[in-house]
Design goal:
Pectate Lyase C-like; 45-stranded parallel beta sheet; mainly beta; single chain
């Protein structure tokens, strides 16, 4: 291995070791080995994979630290892969010289306002494993084009920018797994202006990624933030599974935020599965705008400033077997669907459980200017002013649900309310508990048929 100390690096945390490390890259054997120590650098260690040949960077089981005291990334890996994940698209010396660049078991600490951790450009089969990046701007940044990226067992912690930033990148096949991604001011995992396919975010702890621990102004962000409003960008074929995704409340903040323009000018975010996560404690826990084809199932989603789930200008959204609740009196719960169509909500439990109702005063489920919404087999308990509140909706079916007020002193004014204009709405075969006013409020113009409900007096 190319021991950087044999090329002149000191690892004393004071001496500028930049030139010695570059010397090791030029004249070493391809494995850049950092013995225990603190290696101060003043400019990026930029590695041209086409020239260097196969490369590995190793920090001796995490005992080595690289202190980046200048702007830019501590490590920048640059390849030439312009193809896809298809083996036949790999050209030139990409497989002989560039495949599988690996960075593992090393710490990168920033000591400059514009210091970043690691940057990947046009790489193939990159692996980042067991890396700690802290006090940088962006932890790991992928840009331009990359394929087949693995990020695992990392700690991306307390950075002023984004933890893992997919920035203006064309990227297919990326797995982010088994990592802690926390206290990054502008988001844990953030995607902007990119074309992404085959993204898996699995088994991570993604928490507190907002301004709260930084002496900086608040800026709306999320633990997982996806913005595809830029022309040509799209994010599809995504799995978010078995993560803990939690936060502290921040203005405009979310745990998961997926944002697309609603004008139909580009391919909306879709083919998403969000499954088996613990998600909680933000203004909106999951906020979908302009999405098409998203499945949200088996999650525990708790405590919001506004809504557990907010869906806007979206269609073909399936919401099944989730638990929605609050765990502190100062926060709320509930679902809101606005200007959306073809949404199915099945087998979910929405529970207020506070004697005075929600701070916002909102119903447990709000439906606004939407159509073809099916709500079936759900429990909606302790809603104030009501369980389900629909305004200007059509072809809404509410069937087989339990809508009760379980408090000793009832606070629910109504079970279900339909107001405004609508047609083809159905309320049937539900179990409805007593309320303090009328069970149903149904404007004549809302077009509601009520049949076969069991209403407790």
């Amino acid at each position: 291995m190319s021991n950087v100390q044999r090329f002149g690096a000191t690892g004393d945390g004071v001496t500028d070791d930049t030139e010695a490390i570059q010397h090791a890259i030029r004249d070493g054997d391809g494995v850049l080995h950092f013995p225990p120590g603190s290696y101060r650098i003043t400019q990026p260690i930029e590695i041209d994979l086409a020239q260097s040949g196969p490369l590995g960077i190793d920090g001796t089981s995490g005992t080595a630290r690289v202190l980046m005291t200048g702007p830019g990334p501590a490590f920048r890996l640059i390849g030439t892969h312009g193809g896809t994940g298809d083996p036949t698209s790999v050209k030139g010396n990409v497989y002989p010289n560039q495949r599988l660049p690996t960075i593992k078991n090393i710490e990168v600490e920033g000591a400059h306002p514009e210091a970043d951790g690691i940057e990947l450009i046009q790489t193939l089969q990159s692996v980042i494993e067991g890396v700690l990046v802290r006090r940088c701007r962006h932890g790991i940044r992928l840009t331009q084009r990359n394929r087949n990226v693995l990020i695992s067992h990392c700690h991306i912690y307390y950075n002023t920018g984004v933890g893992i930033f997919l920035d203006q990148v064309n990227l297919h096949q990326i797995i982010i797994a088994s990592s802690h991604i926390s206290y990054n001011r502008l988001g844990g995992i953030r995607i902007e202006g990119s074309e992404i396919r085959n993204l898996q975010i699995t088994g991570n702890d993604i928490e507190y990624n907002n301004h709260a621990q930084h002496d900086m102004d608040a800026e709306p962000t999320a633990e997982i933030f996806v913005d595809t409003t830029a022309p040509g960008s799209s994010v599809n074929e995504v799995t978010i599974a078995s993560n803990t995704i939690q936060a502290t409340l921040s203005p405009g903040g979310c745990n998961i935020r997926i944002l697309e323009t609603a004008d139909g000018s580009s391919r909306p975010p879709g083919l998403w599965s969000i499954t088996g996560n613990i998600i909680g404690s933000q203004e909106n826990n999951v906020h979908l705008t302009g999405c098409y084809g998203v499945s949200l199932s088996g999650n525990c989603i708790y405590s919001c400033g506004n809504r557990n789930l907010l869906i806007e200008d979206s269609r073909q959204i399936n919401v099944g077997t989730n638990t929605f609740r609050r765990h502190t009196p100062r926060m709320g719960t509930g679902i809101r669907i606005v200007r959306s169509a073809d949404v199915t909500i099945t087998g979910c439990s929405i529970l207020d459980e506070h004697p005075d109702g929600q701070p916002s005063g909102a119903a447990l489920m709000d439906l606004v200017a939407s159509q073809r919404i099916n709500v079936s087999g759900c429990q909606l308990l302790d809603g104030v002013p009501c369980g389900i509140d629909a305004t200007d909706c059509s072809h809404v079916s509410i069937t087989g649900c339990t809508i009760h007020d379980t408090r000793e002193e009832r606070k629910s004014e109504h079970a279900i309310r339909f107001t405004g204009q609508g047609k083809g709405n159905l309320v049937g075969m539900n179990s409805i508990g007593p309320t303090i006013m009328s069970t149903f409020v149904l404007d004549e113009a809302a077009g509601v048929t009520v049949d076969g409900n069991v209403v407790e007096s």
